[in-house]
Give the backbone structure.
Amino acid sequence: MVATSQPLAVAAGLEVLTQGGNAADAAIATAAALNVTEPTSTGIGGDCFGLFYDAATCKISALNGSGRAPGALTLDRLAREGLGDGLPPLHPYTITVPGACAGWCDMVAQHGRLDMDSVLAPAIRLAEEGFPVAPITAYFWGRGVERQLKQAPGGLELTIEGRAPRAGEIFRNPGLARTLRVVAVGGKGAFYQDEIAEAMANSVQAAGGCLSVEDLAKHTSTWEQPASTTYRGLRVWECPPNGQGITALIGLNILEGFDLLAFDPLSAERLHLEIEAMRLAFADTRWYIADPAFNPVPLKTLLSKEDAAERRQLIDPQNATLGQIHGTPVASSDTVYLTVVDGEGNACSFINSNYLGFGTGIVPQGWGFTLQNRGHNFDLNPEHPNALAPGKRPYHTIIPGMITREDDNSLYASFGVMGGFMQPQGHVQVVVGLVDDALDPQAALDRQRFCISDGRADGRVALEQGIPPQVISKLEQMGHPVEQVSGHARATFGRGQIILRNRESGALYGGSDPRADGCAMGL
């Protein structure tokens, strides 16, 4: 089964599965096809993270495919140029080394069965022959043209005569097809060296940035031990920092101490507990999450049940607390998420992002992809664990998730919810729906959500249309600053995918978020 936000990308993953590929091969085929069909959110010029469940060993490995800051980019340099108080989100200094290509190749090399030529073939075909643009994608493409592509060097390559493609209109991307063909033949080395690397460095430097061919040539992915916690007899897995996955784990640890079934799922009482748990989780992680190569993260303490019990005591069941601070140990966005489970029970939970839509919108001339602006997530306070430094990975919002059964380590679900700081909040809400309320994957994704703005402990709470007015009113009375969100603005609540595996039969149950254009489909 494959589940993601574009049906044609689902088809690409299924095609690779029918050709003998496994979950890793199909995940990367899907990710590459998403680069073609949803460049508004993702691409080879961005970053990726992945979790892979090996059915033979019941082990999970975590891939960190995020890039690092340029070697010449320092806080002193920003201060000299008058940028010490903050980087504009589309500034070329926000471009970190794009880690997606290495991540794709490394996932296939470590866990896949096919070669990159076979894995990338469906995406290359889509880019060369063209595809009909999906409706929600067309809307956000239009916004991206106005916000980024019209102004960014090379950005018009991803338009049709200066405008966004309309829903149902065929769009072709020969530049991206060229990029993918080079990678299919030459692997990741062909991307981080030679002419693609030179084009990336030249385009960034011409725009006023400092990414160099040396920065690109030095890039490597890393394989890491995933972080996890138990929740009501299951184990929930996330990638470790510099990603924000532990935010979801902290939130679940806090919520495990409450009887959530005592309240209606969309009642003010339950939503209040979930919101307050996430406020506490963000208070910790917005301070502590950073590149562990520079600032080790106290994972053992942050994920302990004892720490959760202490933090839980700070929740007032009747009133919001907007001034939560981080514990004794203060260490935004467009993304695509996909998940694949193959016939042997292997699973890949994978996420890929440009950060803010088309990222910076800068396109290396003739190569058909935009460069991310993930460096906007660095803190410019030199005392902060996530402070900008040369060669450092920034705080990362994109997180894939996975759940196993604690008694036998079998796969329970592969899941994710994309969308900036919404992601750990979405993970918590989906897990609660699946586990506490025993919802099927589609129902868990359909349920209305909340989102604490910008992942701030004191942030305003967006509430999705469909939450009853009396509930919204009561949350306001409890002290939560709230706003109701509807229409295309519902993108703030993320777009998730879930595949759940039945222990007895091995049958797969899939769900795909109604806030996107996609689907879940199995063979």
User: Anything to note?
Assistant: The CA atoms of residues 88 and 296 lie 28 Å apart. The two ends are 6 Å apart (CA to CA).
